[in-house]
């Protein structure tokens, strides 16, 4: 008794199917590898079509950082003027002023020589130093001076919160952190007003 395998409908059909699958897999693998190579090439240097965009983003971030540095300098000047006009507020204001000085250093502002919280080794470059803003007027009333300082902290925090939307991730995180600290300072200054 001779047994034979059941005949297939079309013996060449399975071969055509395998060849088609192989071609599809080859094309798919080639597309994936080619796309990956293209992405890696595009990310490797800024001279490609996206290079101008990266330069523009870097310039925009530099402008945001410079504005944040100016805002920090202005806030430091307000703290210094308030401390000079109302030495009795020193215990309440010095810790907040020290925080503002650290924020300024994070944005590249070097502390002025002889500043109350000048610390060596902040990492800020001397080129980032700019002449400080002129001393703001401080109200003669201590409570009003704290109110004005709280308002300045709030305005600065709001400006930073607005700016972080268009900043690169690293700068946005810094702006968000400093904005949150500024909002907390404003709140603490308001508590000090209520307690006085």
**β content, as a range?**
under 5%
Class by helix and strand content?
mainly alpha
Uncertain residue ranges? 26-48, 117-132
Helix content class: 55-70%
Order of helices and strands: HHHHH
Give the overall shape.
elongated
Gap from first CA to last CA: 112 Å
Largest sheet composition: none
The count of strands amounts to: 0
Number of helices: 5
Q: Compute the gyration radius: what is it?
A: 31 Å
What is the residue-averaged pLDDT? 74
Give a written overview of the molecule.
By secondary structure, this protein is an all-alpha fold. It has helices at 13-44, 51-85, 90-106, 142-163, 169-195. It is elongated. The chain starts with 12 loop residues before the first helix and ends with a helix. Residues 26-48 and 117-132 have low confidence and may be disordered.
């Amino acid at each position: 008794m001779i047994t034979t395998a059941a005949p297939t409908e079309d013996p060449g059909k399975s071969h055509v199917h395998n060849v088609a699958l192989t071609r599809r897999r080859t094309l798919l693998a080639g597309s994936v590898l080619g796309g990956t190579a293209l992405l890696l090439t595009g990310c490797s240097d800024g001279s490609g079509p996206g290079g101008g965009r990266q330069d523009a983003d870097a310039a925009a971030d530099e402008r945001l950082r410079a504005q944040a540095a100016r805002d920090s300098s202005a806030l430091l000047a307000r703290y210094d003027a308030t401390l000079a006009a109302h030495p009795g507020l020193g215990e309440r204001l010095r810790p907040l002023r020290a925080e503002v000085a650290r924020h300024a250093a994070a944005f590249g502002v070097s502390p002025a020589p002889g500043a109350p919280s000048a610390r060596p080794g902040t990492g800020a470059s001397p080129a980032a130093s700019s002449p400080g803003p002129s001393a703001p007027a401080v109200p003669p009333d201590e409570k009003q001076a704290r109110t004005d300082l709280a308002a300045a902290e709030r305005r600065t925090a709001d400006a930073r919160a607005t700016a972080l939307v268009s900043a690169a991730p690293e700068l946005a995180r810094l702006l968000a952190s400093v904005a949150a600290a500024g909002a907390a300072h404003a709140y603490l200054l308001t508590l000090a007003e209520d307690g006085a």
